[in-house]
Structures are given as C-alpha cells and as structure tokens.
Amino acid sequence: AYFFNGRVGVLVGMNLTSYITLDGGETWTKYVHGGGERFSGGIRDIYVKNENECFITGNTGRLFHISDDGDSWSWNDVHNQTIHELTFLTRDIGYLVGKNILLKTLDGGNTWLGQSIKISNAMYLDFPSIDTGFVGYSDLIPSIHKTENGGKNLYSLYTKEYRINKTNRAPFAFLTTQKGLVCADNNKILYTPDGCETWEVKSISDNENMEERDIVAVGTQGWLISVIEDRKTKIYYVDPPPRISIIHEFEESEGKGLILRKVSDTLFCIGMFQNEKRNLYFGNLTEWRKTDIPFYTTFYAYNEHVIYTYDANTTSVYKVIVYDDSLQVSLQKESSYKYTLFSNVQNVPLNLSLTNSKGEIVWSGQLNSGNGESTIDFPETIENGSYLMQIEPEKGYYYKTTEPIEVILKADDTPVMEVSQEKSYTLSGRTLYVESSSVKIFTVTGKEIPLFNKRITLKSGIYLLVDGNETYKIVIR
User: Fold this and answer.
1) Which of 268, 333, 412, 438 sits at 20 to 30 Å (Cα–Cα) from 69?
2) How far apart are CA 133 and CA 394, in angstroms?
3) Nearest to residue 250, comparing CAs of 290, 297, 277?
4) DSSP state of 246
C-alpha cells in the first residue's frame, strides 16, 4: 500500500487487482485489470485523452481503452503486430502507429482504419495539424516519413545531411508543419525550418559523455530536451533559429531522467530513476520540484491534478488524484500574534514566510495543515506592523503559488465571534438563508458577496457575516 497524502492511497493485490481510496481509507474502489495480453511496456505507449479516459497499446496489436476512472475496460484488436504511439488531434480524430501500419480514427477511438506503410517498426508520430504529420523510425533506418493527406500517403525525408548525422532512434518534435527538431548523434540536434526539406546541424554541448533522452514542444515557441551528461540529467531549451540554453541541472544523487512529458505549455514533468526508485519532478522554464509520486513502467500527466501510471509487468493501471484544487488558504486573526490558518489540503507541510515593506523576510517557519485548520503563533519579537505572508506546500504536487496574504501584528487583540444561531439568518450546511436586509456577507479580504432571493450557497472557506454592528465568522469546510 502507498498513501500519496492524507486522503489518496493505493493498495495493490494479486491477480491484477488494486484498490484506491480518496477519503483516507474510509472507502475503497476496486479495479480489476486484464485483457488477454501484456501492455507494450514502452515509454510512449500510454495516451490519456482526458481525465476519465486513456488508451494503452498492447504488444500484439491490441489497443486497450480505459474509461470511467478505470471501471470500464475494453480492447480492440486493431493490428496483428506491435503498435506503439498514439495521438489525438481533436476529440474524434486520432492516429496510431505501429509495425508496417498507420491507423486513423474518426470517432474518438471506437473504430480504426488501417493504412499499410513501408516502415518496418514505426515508433513515433507527431501531427502538428489534422492532415500533416511525421512518422519515424524503421528498425534499421532512423528516417522520418511525412504525410500531408491524413496518412493516405507517406514519403521518406532522408536527405544526405540528415543521414550522416542521424543513426540513433532518439525522438523528434514539431512546433508547426514546417519547424521541427530531431535529436541526432554526437551531442547534436537537427533543425528544419521547412518541413524536413533542409536541415541545420547544431551541437548542444562539447561534452562527449552526453546522451539525449527525450524532447517536447513548448507551444509554438521552442523545445525542451532532456539529456544525461556525465551522469547528471540536464534540461535544455531550444528555440529557432536555433538557440540553445540550459535551464536546469539535476544533482547526480537525484538519478537519471528517462521520461520527459508535457503537461501544458507552461508545466512539464520528468521521471527520475535512482537506486531502483522512480519519482516524478515537475517544473517549468525556471524551476523544478520533486514530488512523492512514484511511477512504474511509464506515466502520463493529464493536467495539474491527474496522473496515470501503468506497470507493464503486472498489466496494471493507476490513476492518482493528488489534490482536487490548487492550494487555497485564508487567515483569521485571533489575538495580537496568533492567527488561524484555513486551507483546502490536509496533512500537508506548509512553508510560511513574512516579508516587510522592503521585501525582506523577517520570519519563516513551517506547520502542518492538519485537517484543514491550524494555528500560527508568531514570535512576539517581531515588530508591530503589517506584513505579507507567503504560503507554499513542502511536498506533493506542483502547486500554483498562492498570492501573499496581509498579516497585521499587534493591531487588535479582539477575536471575531463565532456565528450565533439566534440572529436573523440560518446556516444549513453550506446554504445561508438571510431574513433581514441588514445582514451582509463578506469574504475574508473584504469583498461583499451578493445574495440572491435572500440566500447563497457558500464554497469551502471563511466568511464574515455583518449583522448591524456585530461581526461573526462563518467557516465552511
């Protein structure tokens, strides 16, 4: 068993069975995995269409389809040999490549039409538009093939300059139908500005002990390339014409980065292997962070909160929902140096820091979010005044950074009273019913919330209710 946080955990049993809990173990959902054959087990053989639906390729031409959070499994024998990478251009139009075949679907993956191709074992495909795409490579020749009519015809793009610089099978990525980048031999990359008609050769590094691992496109602006250089994993950014710069270098102790994935144009993740352990790191063009999320054969991050992983050895698929929302916090002052912190996460270490008007950090500390409510006792050695507090999670998923919150110390020792049930309103669950026009409801930042038909349903958070000259606190969990 493994718990990713205080709520989400997975228990793996025998006979391709697993159980997942989203409520700290109170309830468990059973998943039985099967289908008659093993998954392909390659690093690009899983494709997540949306957060409730994914496809996985099989090793003898069977395509698995998983939906309804894993409750529904089906498979389709689309080929009689190995199939590899899959991509969707729209909700309905997608392509699948394999040994001597390129398949296309027009109905979201329910049926596939095959087109025989003269590529003995095509592994990669990249379609920057619905009809124009690139397919590679064969078992013996790492050439790229191109189609401009949705896969009906393919022709090889194997120019002399490409041939003398490309013998490996490292992947490629295209920003548009014209601009593409290929990982080549001897620390080099091949850039095309014209759809593979011509190639420009560029060296990434002078280091001979370098191995290119993976490449992803960053919108239509550039590419990220992961390399292993002197046993260290490095992330390079390349933009046309091309210009190359290093944006992150992992420590050798963090392991080797073997799988680079794109979550969005501003968020990426990489799998790091170290001493048989595998962990995910998430990052952008400026910083990368380690998470406690393990993975198995490969993984796919659908968005900022949903990750699919699968283990080809046991034919098991796991879906991890780390947190339902980005970190959300609010403060309630109790006395001079005491605040209550409310958050939407449980049992997560939070790093806190206070900054003065000069931008200087005057205090930093850490607390556990507990059940979503925790107490901050600031040191009384801090001078009276107004500060901004930054709150960030210590572990877990790559959160969006919260906005700083104002903290006033030694300004008012009077705490806000709890809601009284004897006033001119009724709070039933999350719904507030108001009977008097003098009652107003505000967020903790002072923004008034309008009432409709004398009632409102509140989201999780803290609110201030003003009834005449009296103020009360409402906490919705």
Assistant:
1) 268
2) 42
3) 290
4) E
64: which 2 tokens?
A: 């698995």
CA distance 50 to 67: 9
Pairwise CA distance, residues 96 & 466, whole Å = 60
Residues written for the chain: 477
CA distance 185 to 199: 14
Q: Tell the residue number behind the tokens 């002399």, with chain if given.
A: 160
Segment 199-250, tens digit of pLDDT: 999 999 888 778 877 999 998 899 999 999 888 999 999 998 889 999 999 9
Q: Output the furthest CA–CA distance in the chain (Å, rounded).
A: 85
- The amino acid at residue 467 is D
Place of tokens 């352990």: 277
Alpha carbons within 13 angstroms on the beta-carbon side of residue 383 total 8
- In the chain, % of residues over pLDDT 90: 26
Residues 333-365: tens digit of each pLDDT: 888 888 999 887 777 788 899 988 778 899 999
Cβ(308)–Cβ(299) below 8 Å:
yes
Residue 343 corresponds to which tokens in the numbers above? 């958050």
Pairing state of beta strands 425-428 and 448-449? unpaired
Token pair of 254, please?
């963090």
CB-CB neighbours of 461 under 10 Å: 17
